[in-house]
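Q: I'm writing a short explainer about Murein DD-endopeptidase MepM for a general audience and would like to include a description of its predicted shape. Could you first generate the structure from this sequence?
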Amino acid sequence: MKAFSQMIFIVCFINGVILFAQNNYPQNYFRNPLHIPIQLAANFGTVRTNHFHMGLDIRTNSQENLSVVAAADGYVSRIKIERYGFGNAIYITHPNGYTTVYAHLNSFFDGLDQYVKERQYKDEKWEQDIVLLPKQFPVSKGQLIALSGNTGGSAGPHLHFEIRDTKTEECINPLLFGFDVPDRISPIISGMYWYDRRFSTYEPGANGIAVKKVGNMYMTNLIQINSPAISFGIKAIDKANQGFNLGIYEAKLFMDGQLKYSFKIDKVSYEDTRYLNGCIDYTKFVQDKMSIQHLSTLPGMKLEHYSTGLDGIINFQDNEIHNVEIVVKDINGNTSRLVTKVQFTKASEKISSYGTTINANEGKTVKTENAEISFSKKSFYDSIHFNMSEKPDAEAASNTVILHTINIPVHDSYSLKIKPNKKLRDEEKDKVVMELNYGNDKNVIKGKWNNGWVEGQFNRLGIVKLIIDNSLPSVSPNWKDGSLVNASSLRLKGETAVGDIVSFRAELDGKWLRFTRVKNDFIYVFDEKCPKGSGLQTLKIVITNTAGNTNTQTFTFQR
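A: Of course. Here's the predicted structure. Afterward I'll give you a sentence or two in plain language.
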């Protein structure tokens, strides 16, 4: 099929102003990658932890192994296999300048699956990132390329589908390409918030405003403000016709008929997707799992293509009552409006805060007696009063270092140095890891020794300490040692007291065996390397954890 472009012009009226929108992406060039109608579990731009959702999550009716087909003619240009993230993924490059991505797959079509398997055995490595040439695996529109699944960082069976600009690798909202996804439901607005911008959106944080729906309009009572400089945020979702909470596509903020801020989520690159944390109230997201999107630009938020350049900060010059309107749209043009009135009354005193002031776009180093943290100019989206302290920890190899709070985001990695609280022998030093606790999860890294300090990098705040880890990682089989295995696979459950299993190697009769990894489970699906009737087999497993501790285990089974 030849590429063609269809220019769509949409004319809408807001406050008497005529606005033109255009879409110059090819319409109906790409087909539905499944044989069932598209129903969305998530759309492009949905708020996720530390990133925008970068494609469409297409429902597979809670089933796996549905046929996945090429959305258009092209060739398989890349295969990626990983424990988390996309799991098993196919990239198809098309002649019209776009690349489609299909993720969380169970398996690839036969020829490609065999190619990948041979590559894995050759490299003796399950995780792969393979770049392919145009003539190796050409595909035609509608051709079977894979079976859907639930691999990688997937919480349930579905197909993750993306469209990227091949040259820039920016992800583009797939719904701009004319897919048939019926939607007659306007976005739902459930909350409005204002922020005192005399210092930062983080201090003192969100002020909630009750929202009510009257007819087809959302409204609030008169909002009385005690700061001369504020910005707004909104809590809204797009329900579409399918019941899932989808992300909103576009929002505009007007005051007295004048546009103060707007955003639209058309395209984002993976390099920039972490800027999401500067587009939302991150504190509310972490504390309350609530998605509030700012209707203003934080000073350290540098995401391209997202907002118009207006900063959204409202500076009051009087005590008059002003009209505020917020317009929220989905990609099909379904629109919701919130109208309210706002009045500046009298400025309150600023809240006193303690700590080292770090502004957006400012690098800084903060020290305590036994710790030092260094931030780059990209670290923070808004100003903070950074607090860092220590407390004794008799069970650890260092004091516990408290890095402000988990409720403030960091855009890039910072460097942290910690001094041990005791003299360590060389063998103990070799087993030291840095453990960052950030709420319900932990990140454990090896770190490097530098003049008696351990140095590492993290990209979240929390509580950090040094731990001496002498524990051995292990795996436990789902079969009794020496027994006959009638199942189609072997499964080993991995366990480690601290950190993660960073290396896993399985050998059968001294030769590498392909185990896939699902979270902390290691799975081998029987193939020609271990045929039926091969008698008693000895499986050797060598695993290493974050601290570098290695354990060798052997198991036997009959096949």
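A: For your explainer, you could say: Residues 1-22 have pLDDT under 50 and may be disordered.
Q: Perfect, that's easy to follow.
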